[in-house]
Amino acid sequence: MMWFMTQTWGCIPELSPTCLDMTNASSTYLGIIIGAIIGGIISWWIFNRQKKTSDKQDYTLNRIEQLEKYNEKLLQKINQVEERHEKLLQKILDLNRKIDSLLEN
Questions:
Q1: pTM
Q2: How confident is the model at residue 1 (pLDDT cuts 50, 70, 90)?
Q3: What residues contact 29, with CB distance under 8 A and at least 6 apart?
């Protein structure tokens, strides 16, 4: 098995104790393998970071939508209270005018 690997891959001192120096072919293959491993790790890390960021953004957007709905309901209630106060104020002013007119007569 070692003979087959050394013949196919060239002389790799790590695989064959009789080898004195690494050949250009084995150096290239080893570089490609190490580069692929490092590239895969970096790609996974970038993907993982982007996924975490995307999840946080989705959570934040959902929370903003919930807050907007809550604020909309709150504004509607405030508007209703304002309308009631306005009607009450009008009734008080009408009552005040009636009292003034009765006092004048």
A1: 0.53
A2: very low
A3: 9, 10
